[in-house]
Amino acid sequence: MEAADARLTEAWVSPLFQLTATGSFALVPGARGTPVFSPDAQLPLNNSWGPAGAVRVEGAIPLFTFGKLDAARDAARAGIRAAESDVDRVRAQLRFDVRRAYYALELALDAEQMISEGRSKLDQAVARLQERIENDDPDVNEMDRWRMSSTLAEVDGRSSEANRLHQISYEALSILSTEENFALPDCAMTALSFDLRALSYYQDTARSHRPEAAQLMAAIAARDASLSLTRAQYFPDIALAVSAGYSRTPGVTDQSNPFVQDSGNTPTLGAALVARWSLDLWGNSLRVRRAREELYDAHDRADEARSGISLEVATIYEELRDARRREESWGRGHRDTRAWFMAAAQAYQIGTAEPRDLVDALRAYFQARFSHIQAIHDNNVAAAKLERAIGVELMPESAWEVTCPE
After folding, report:
1. How large is the C-alpha radius of gyration of the chain?
2. The model scores a pTM over 0.85
3. How far apart are CA 119 and CA 153, in angstroms?
4. Which of 36, 210, 250, 394 is the most core-located residue (most Cβ within 10 A)?
5. What is the pLDDT of residue 299?
6. CB atoms < 10 A from the CB of 15, how many?
7. Nearest one of 93, 92, 98, 91 to 184, comparing CA atoms
8. 255, 31 in Cβ contact below 8 A?
9. CA-CA distances (angstroms) from residue 383 to 36, 195, 295, 392, 394?
C-alpha cells in the first residue's frame, strides 16, 4: 500500500524536478593574455599548473505533455486501488482461515466428547461381558468378546483421529489469531443460520464487491492509462528549460568580453521554452498496437475471471445447501440413534440385550452423531467460504461464534 502511494506521489512531484547538477575539479596549466594577444602557446604545458572547478545545473520542467503526465498519474491511481483491494483480499482470507480453524477445533472437541461418552458405555459393556464369560454364561461366547474388542479398537482409532484434528486446528488457530491461550465455549457446536437468498444475488454481489473483482478493474484502468500514455508519444513535450553554471580557473586570465569564449572562467544563466519530439513514429505505432492488445487482453481476462467467480460462488452455494440438508437429516438420525444406544446400553446392563445389539446401536449412534457434527461443521465453513467469495458481510461478526444457551 505504501509503495502504491509513493508511486502516485512520484508521478506528481518527480516531473517538476527533472534537473541535473554536475560538478568538476581539475588541474590545468595557466594561461595569460587578452582577447587579441597572449604570450603563451595554445597548449601551454610548460606553464605552472593550478586548480580549475565548475558547477552546472540544468534541466527542463514540463509545461504541456499532451496527456502523458495525466496518464502516468491515472496508472498510479489504479495501482493504489489494486493495492487497497489486495489488502481487503488478504484480510478476507485471514478471516476465513481463522473461522475454518475455529470450526475444525469445535468439530474435534465435539468428536472427542462423543467418543468419551461412548467409550465409557463400551467399557462398562466389556466389563459386563467379561463377568458373564467368567461365570460361564451360556448366552455369551468368544465371538462376542471379539466383537466388543474390535469395536473398542475402532473407537480408539477414531479417538486418535479426533485428537490429531484437535492439535492441528488448535495450533492453526493459535498462529492465525496470535493468541497462545484461549478457550472455546463448553457446549456443542451449532449450525449457523441465516436467510439464504437466490444464487444470482450472490453471484452479482461477488462480481461487484469481491476484492479480486476490484483488482481486475484496476488492472483494466492501468492498461487503459498505458495506452493513453503510448498514444501521447506521437506528440512533443513542451517544457521550460533552465540552465545555470559557473566555472573558475585562477591560473587562467579571465576574459570579460562576452564575445570571447572562456571555458575556464564563465558564469552562465538561461531559460527557454523548448519542445522535445521523438520522431520514432513507426516504432510508436507498434507500441500503441501492443498496448491496445494488452488492454483487450485485460478485458478478456476480467470476463474470464468473472465467469470463474460466478462458478465458484455457485459451487459454494450448493455446498452450503447440501450441508444444510445433511445437517437436518443427520440431526434426526442423531436423536434416534442416541435413544437406541441408551436403551441398548441399559438393556445390556440388566441382561435383556445381547452384545451384538449394543455394538450395532453404538456404531449406528457414532455414525449418525459424527455425520451430524460433520454436517454442522461443513455448514459453518461453507457459510464462511460464501462470505469470502462474495466480499460482503453475511451476518454480524458476533453471529459467527458458538454461543451456549444459559
Report:
1. 41
2. no
3. 10
4. 210
5. 93
6. 18
7. 98
8. no
9. 95, 11, 36, 12, 8
The arrangement of secondary structure in 65-236+277-392, i.e. its CATH architecture, is Up-down Bundle (1.20)
The cell for 39 is 604570450
pLDDT tens digits, one per residue of 129-171: 666 666 666 666 667 667 777 777 777 788 888 889 888 988 8
Q: Judge whether 384 and 100 are in contact, CB under 8 Å.
A: yes
Phi, psi of 207, rounded to the nearest 5 degrees: -65, -20
Contact 329, 374 (CB under 8 A): no
Higher pLDDT, 11 or 227: 227
The residues spanned by each domain of the chain are 65-236+277-392
Cell 564563465 identifies what position?
266
Euclidean distance between the first and final Cα of the chain, in Å? 45
The secondary structure of residue 31, as a DSSP letter, is: B
> Residue 98 in contact with residue 169, Cβ under 8 Å?
no
Q: Nearest CA to 170 among 250, 112, 231?
A: 112
Across 3-18, average pLDDT: 80
Mean pLDDT, residues 377-391 taken together: 94
Instruction: Indicate the length of the chain as a whole number.
Output: 406
Neighbours of 277 (CB within 10 A): 11
State phi, psi for 185 to the nearest 5 degrees: -55, 140
| Bridge partners, 271 (sequence order) | 242
Angle between helical axes of 68-134 and 142-177 (0-180°, round to 10): 150
Rounded CA gap, 262 and 256, in Å? 8
C-alpha cell at 107: 468439530
Q: Residue 245 in contact with residue 262, Cβ under 8 Å?
A: no
Give me 270's grid cell.
Answer: 538561461
* Dist CA 336 CA 43 (whole Å): 113
3-state SS string over 255-316?
A: CCCCCCCCCCCEEEEEEEEEEECCCCHHHHHHHHHHHHHHHHHHHHHHHHHHHHHHHHHHHH
| 3-state SS, residue 104 | helix
